[in-house]
Design brief:
Helix content is about 35%, strand content about 25%. With about 60 residues, the protein is of the alpha+beta class. It is built from 2 helices and 3 strands. It is globular.
């Protein structure tokens, strides 16, 4: 999955940008009190996308 598509999915489900780390972007789900990091790669593999969504307690994106 492209990184920008993952970020759009996170934001559509209530997650917000928190800050930039050295190699990652940090997103937070303030409603659930959960935090996860998004690597700065153009493509993020499906296993990692599922892990990020699970960490933030949101549904995983539909496969294209």
């Amino acid at each position: 999955m492209k990184r920008i598509d993952l970020i759009r999915h996170l934001e559509e489900h209530g997650c917000q940008f928190l800050r930039e780390g050295s190699d990652h972007t940090i997103y937070v789900n303030r409603i659930k009190g959960k935090v996860s990091t998004i690597p700065r790669h153009r493509e993020i593999n499906n296993w990692l996308v599922e892990k990020i969504c699970k960490d933030l307690e949101i549904i995983k994106p539909e496969s294209k």
